[in-house]
Amino acid sequence: MRINDELTDILKEFKEKAAAAGITQCYLQTHFQSPLEITPEAKRAVEAVLAAGWTVTNQLVFTAAASRRGHTAKLRQALNAIGVVGYYTFSVKGFRENYAVFAPNSRSMQERNEEKRAGFMSEEKRKELDTLIRTQRPLGKQLIRFLKQNSLPFAGTDRNVLNLPGIGKSMNFHTIGITAEGRRILRFDHDAGRRHSPIIHQMGKVYIVENKSVAAYLRQLQEMGEDISEYQTIWSYCEGKTEPRFSIYDYPAYPFRVTDRMTNLQLTVNDE
């Protein structure tokens, strides 16, 4: 197993030195796609990293297979049980080379509003969960206890987003058109909840044409054995809004002021 005693000792030492320098949180990112990937070896590896003082988070790539009803919800539940916290549910870009795995952004919004909402909680409980994740170990058992006490199947700490060139991670979009093949045309905007380079003020809107129509996506799900009648509300999801970050992913307050100056945007002209 690659996560062995030598590696966890390194992680623990790094965490201790980072804490002395004022860094309060260290993360290790995983890419679990299915509950079937949570093997005994994976569970032991997560436990070892948690014991070293790190927080383990997961970024799910929201492929067509992963987008099936209940799949992502079950994955969140299974990951929470071993102490892994959701970070992103990440839609693949709608380029032609990704056609086979692409799930429309409307499905991501549907999943968020109809399935992930089972893991939403009050602001008070979110603060309680933040403290638990930062301080309690073994985290898996503590998370299970928290979820049971609050009648939650999982903690909906991840954000459903799409990563776009010039935009970054965002789910702020409006459907503004449709092609003859039924593919949706989306106009995206930046995530207003994060800091961006001033260059965005010189950019126009970003438009994408999804590489797969909703109808083609539903036919693909049907070929996988899905009952597409369970997806009928997907047609009504024509716009999106980026969710706020869960608080453990916010940058801490620094004991210094960060400059607003962006020097990478300046061009130097050599007159010689």
Walk me through the structure.
The protein has 272 residues and is α/β, with parallel strands linked by helices. The chain has one domain. It contains seven helices and nine strands; from the N terminus they run αβαβαβαααβββββαβ. A five-stranded mixed β-sheet has the order 1-2-3-4-5. The longest helix is centred in the first third of the chain and has 16 residues, at 5-20. It is globular and about 60 Å long. The model has no long low-confidence stretch (mean pLDDT 91).
Helix/strand layout:
Blueprint: H1 5-20, E1 27-30, H2 40-51, E2 55-62, H3 71-81, E3 85-91, H4 105-114, H5 123-135, H6 139-149, E4 159-164, E5 168-170, E6 172-178, E7 184-189, E8 206-209, H7 214-223, E9 239-240
Parallel strand pairs: 1-2, 2-3, 3-4
Antiparallel strand pairs: 4-5, 6-7, 6-9, 7-8
